[in-house]
């Protein structure tokens, strides 16, 4: 998720709601009442409505005339469909990054992103861990230099999937955490096929976990 570098009241509300999902202050299916939000964040209704509209456009919040704003609840089929798309996008990000890893400063940026990410416990569900994951993918996209991929990636609903299906995805946490090192190694070596394959396998593990839980 990308929010403007200079934070407005709207941006602050957006960021805290997303953080609140990881902290358990907000949950899938929960109603977001404008009056409660304005009081909690100490802002007028304008920024709150802008924040809810932004979250709605990202698919994180559902806005309906009867029920107002509500944190979106994804079915397992919806979550799987989203991750199948993410698998392709992340694979492409890794491939493009491997092809441009010799760009000035690229290798150092990726190493720093990996170092920050692997410092977390694999099963951590903290907002900072989520931010480190996003940062890792963001660096891959930045190195790859594809503007359209940069535009498309923040629109996937990985945030909501991670929160809603945390217990289901936990079974593959340790293996998926190790994947980051393998992806980085392939990218740093400029091995495009290997980098893409590793990134796709990484997301496919989450898809498999969801499918397995659905079939039980």
Describe the structure.
This protein has 216 residues and is mainly α. It has 2 domains: 9-71, Arc Repressor Mutant, subunit A, CATH 1.10.10; 76-215, GntR ligand-binding domain-like (Four Helix Bundle (Hemerythrin (Met), subunit A), Up-down Bundle). Helix content is 69%, strand content 5%. It is built from 11 helices and 3 strands; from the N terminus they run αβααββαααααααα. It has helices at residues 9-23, 34-41, 45-57, 76-99, 106-118, 127-144, 147-152, 158-164, 166-169, 173-188, 192-215; strands spanning 31-32, 61-64, 68-71. The two termini are 32 Å apart.
- Tell the overall outline: globular
Give a quick account of the main beta sheet: strands, pairing sense, barrel closure: 3 strands, antiparallel
CATH topology of the largest domain: Four Helix Bundle (Hemerythrin (Met), subunit A)
* Series of secondary-structure elements, N-terminal to C-terminal: HEHHEEHHHHHHHH
Overview features:
216 residues; mainly alpha; Arc Repressor Mutant, subunit A; Four Helix Bundle (Hemerythrin (Met), subunit A); 2 domains; 3-stranded antiparallel beta sheet; 69% helix; globular
């Amino acid at each position: 998720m990308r929010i403007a570098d200079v934070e407005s009241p709207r941006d602050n509300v957006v960021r805290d709601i997303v953080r609140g999902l990881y902290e358990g202050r907000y949950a899938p299916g929960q109603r977001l009442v404008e009056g409660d939000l304005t009081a909690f964040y100490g802002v007028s209704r304008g920024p709150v409505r802008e924040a809810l509209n932004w979250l709605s456009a990202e698919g994180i919040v559902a806005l309906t005339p009867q029920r107002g704003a509500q944190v979106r609840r994804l079915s397992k089929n919806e979550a799987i469909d989203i991750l199948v798309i993410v698998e392709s996008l992340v694979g492409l990000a890794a491939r493009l990054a491997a092809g441009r890893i010799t760009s000035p400063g690229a290798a150092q940026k990726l190493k720093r992103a990996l170092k920050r990410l692997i410092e977390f416990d694999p099963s951590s569900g903290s907002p900072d861990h989520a931010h480190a994951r996003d940062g890792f993918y963001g660096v891959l996209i930045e190195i790859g230099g594809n503007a359209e991929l940069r535009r498309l990636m923040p629109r996937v609903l990985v945030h909501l999937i991670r929160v809603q299906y945390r217990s289901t995805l936990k079974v593959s946490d340790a293996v998926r955490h190790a994947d980051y090192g393998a992806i980085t190694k392939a990218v740093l070596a400029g091995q495009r096929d290997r980098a893409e394959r590793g990134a796709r396998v990484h997301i496919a593990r989450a898809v498999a976990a969801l499918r397995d839980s659905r079939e039980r």
